[in-house]
Amino acid sequence: MRAFGLGGLGLGANPVAAITDTLGLWALRLLLATLAVSPLRRLTGQPRWLLYRRMLGLFAFCYLSLHLAMYFAVDQGFDWRVLLEDVAKRRWITLGAAAFVLLAPLAATSTHAAQRRLGRRWQRLHYAIYPATLLGCWHFYWQVKRDVREPLVYAAVFALLMLPRALGAWRRRRAAAAAAAGYIEVRADQSSGKKRSSSALAR
Amino acid sequence: MLLRRPAAIRPSEITPPEVYAGRRRFLGGALALAAATAAPAALGTTGPTGTALSFRRNADLSTSEAANSWEDVTGYNNYYEFGTDKADPAANAGRLRVQPWSVAIGGECEAKGSVPLEELLKPHALEERVYRLRCVEAWSMVIPWVGVPLGEVLKRFRPTSKARYVAFTTLRDPAQMPGQRWPVLDWPYAEGLRIDEAMHPLALLAVGLYGRVLPNQNGAPLRLVVPWKYGFKSIKAIVRIDFTERMPATSWNRAAPGEYGFYANVNPAVDHPRWSQKTERRIGAGVFAPRQPTQPFNGYAREVADLYRGMDLGRNF
After folding, report:
1. Among the residues of chain A, which ranges form H helices?
2. What's the rounded Cα separation, in Å, for the pair B90 and B215?
3. Chain A closest CA to B71's CA: distance in Å?
4. Is residue B75 within 8 Å of residue B90, measured between CB atoms?
5. Residue contact B271–A89, C-beta within 8 A
6. Which residue from B125, B139, B6, B108 is spatially nearest to B55, judged by alpha carbons?
7. Is there a contact between B287 and A16 if contact means CB atoms under 8 Å apart?
């Protein structure tokens, strides 16, 4: 229970660290949950999963914002110099800050109106969740002192969720390449006077 | 044809009427249980436990700062032999058998051998010293230790002129220390001091806390306390002390040489590569208490700075 931050009042001796860490962990968990929606939809054939994607993504951003607020406002007491120095000098904080910068426009364009206005560019913009989640896992990996088992579990879940996407992209690219090859073949066939070609197979 | 379809609600799932009728009492009981488990942590009502020790208070070497609560000192520990979470040591250290206990003394000294803990302590009077403790993770506590001056114990073994360093080793026994089943660090834990550091009057061999015998999660039965260095130097559950001519290998230094040095003196001017050491969060100060500035040598510069005169503390971190 405690490991999942569900201990209620049990924040321990260092509540600032406990709250900050828990918020960060949940931000990462919710990002991974958001990424799980598409594979789950394909796996189950249930389009209903998509109804939760926006909500999960916004929850992730909410927890990330609170995580950041906890660090900046409560732990560092609004000290801008510390913030700038940390972002510039501490690699893991640089990564965390980069993830936040990547995700902020996604949260801002999460409405239907923004989706309509941006059209196809909306999808391209929202691919930013992939690098942002990767940065989140990396941020966690670099933050721990020595025991990297838990960060590696998160990284493995991320890799697992990215696997079908990578496979899909690879298949699409191969199909496109085959189609392009077939197209050239068709033209070659046509120029030699043949009617049918292998392009149908390629497609 | 008889169709045997299981009922939608199985009999075992039906709440008996007396339980249903008593649901308010059940809820009240659940709430009371939740309050009872949460209250000690929230209100700090669990006091010190363990055998009381007789000691005299060393006011000269004690800080006047308010000591952290017994719960904080015994519930928030870095002791990877019992797990890497701060709450793990309190949960898992119960399996450590601290009696009988002896310490093997070896290396460059005249009186080598295995010494039972009782004999190791017998010639010395226990004293209480309230020290600041600064963890390398940038949090701090104030802890009332009970122990004996390390230097006086070491002198009894008559170190030779070759003894330039003192190496300490923790028990290695994965059956008693479940954290050792995973190579988070290169077990057994090892630490070391330069001999002049070890002989400094502030270096303490602690056997108690808050006037009681050390709880296992705090390093029972015998641990080092070096208040001007980061907490990881203060090795716990010591089973070996060796006098050496060469600088001994130490656990955290071996694990990440760029992050943890042999000296590990508290120094706000030298950052850890991954975080700042300029400030620290005092445990127990509350969520909205600001961080406080970290002092050079954890506030013991007047006493120990001479040990490092002429040394580049940025390089010898």
Report:
1. 15-44, 53-69, 80-89, 91-108, 112-118, 120-126, 129-143, 149-191, 199-202
2. 9
3. 8
4. yes
5. yes
6. B125
7. yes
ipTM of the complex: 0.77
Residue with tokens 């999660």: B217
The SS3 call for residue B109 is: strand
Count other C-beta atoms under 10 Å from residue B144's C-beta.
Answer: 20
| Tokens linked to A68 | 């950041």
Check if the beta carbon of residue B202 is closer than 8 Å to that of residue B300: yes
Under DSSP, is residue B73 helix (H, G, I), strand (E, B) or coil? helix
Chain A interface mutation, best of B276, B278, B280, highest count of A Cβ atoms under 10 Å: B276
Q: Are B173 and B187 in contact (CB under 8 A)?
A: no
> CA–CA separation, A146 vs A141, rounded Å?
9
Spatial distance between the Cα atoms of B141 and B69, rounded to a whole number of angstroms: 9
Kindly state the helix (H) or strand (E) to which residue B10 belongs, with its residue range.
Answer: none
Identify the structural domains of chain B with CATH numbers, from first to last: 56-308 (3.90.420.10)
Is residue B233 a contact partner of residue B219, using CB atoms and an 8 Å limit? no
Asked if B81 contacts B221 with a C-beta cutoff of 8 angstroms, the reply is no
User: What are residue A126's phi and psi, to 5 degrees?
Assistant: -80, -5
Is B182 close to A149, i.e. CB distance below 8 A?
A: yes
**pLDDT single digits (tens) B126-143:** 999 999 999 999 999 999
Judge whether B296 and B305 are in contact, CB under 8 Å.
Answer: yes
Residues of chain A with pLDDT under 50: 1-8, 193-203
Judge whether B144 and B209 are in contact, CB under 8 Å: yes
Q: What is the mean pLDDT of residues B234-245?
A: 98
Tokens at residue A103, please? 């995700």
Task: Tell me how far apart the alpha carbons of residues A51 and B40 are, in angstroms, rounded to a whole number.
Answer: 43
Report yes or no: A186 and A178 within 8 Å, Cβ to Cβ.
no
Rounded to whole angstroms, how far apart are CA atoms B269 and B280? 13
Residues 6+ apart with CB under 8 A from A47: A41
Q: Which of chain B's residues have a Cβ under 8 Å away from the Cβ of A77?
A: 290-291
Cα gap A93→A79, rounded to integer Å: 15
End-to-end CA separation in angstroms for chain A: 52
pLDDT tens column, B64-123? 999 999 999 999 999 999 999 999 999 999 999 999 999 999 999 999 999 999 999 999
DSSP letter (8 states) at residue B178: G
Structural domain boundaries in chain A = 2-143
Of A13, A82, A143, the CB nearest to B283: A13
